[in-house]
Fold this sequence. Notes:
Elements: H1 3-19, H2 25-36, H3 55-60, H4 67-77, E1 97-103, E2 116-121, E3 126-130, E4 136-139, E5 146-149, E6 152-155, E7 161-164, E8 170-173
Antiparallel strand pairs: 1-2, 3-8, 4-7, 5-6, 5-8
Helix pairs in contact: 1-4
Organism: marine metagenome
Protein name: Cupin 2 conserved barrel domain-containing protein
Pfam families: DMSP_lyase (PF16867)
Amino acid sequence: MNSLSNQFDRFSKDILRALGDRKCPNLVTLMTVLSELSQIVEPTVPNKTVSCSWLDKAFDKTPTDLSYLAESARKLSDQACWQESQRNIPGVFEGGYAFVALIGPEGQLRSNEFKVGLFIQQPDTYYPPHAHDAEEFYFLLSGKPKWRAGKRTFTASPGDLIHHAPSEVHSMETINE
């Protein structure tokens, strides 16, 4: 296994460790598939966007009990091809957030069953209400954003696993921290 494959293997194991014994049927499926993935990693040309300037600060603010996952995510983030605005709405999202699909149909580690990626949202940024056809899970490493998912409104914290059902409207707002 090469160095990048080793880093993906470490990241996959760290995700499984962080998720632990959480109860959610579809999360169990994700964890099973994640543990069985082939470690054939597609190389990419690393690319960081404007919002990536906040990555180190975000990783550095990860609580000690999640530092192992933050470190494996940080190593992969340095070798990933980040994208700034997925939704193609000029001026609305540009410079506010960035994402990278690490595992999935477009990821460096291929899977047709699900996507796993990293997401960074700059301080004082509102990500307006939206929905996706796919079910989503967010695992928060740092920050305390205001979150809305369906009828639930709450402040998320590091270590929280946030679930969005398919087509569930959700939004996030970060504060300056």
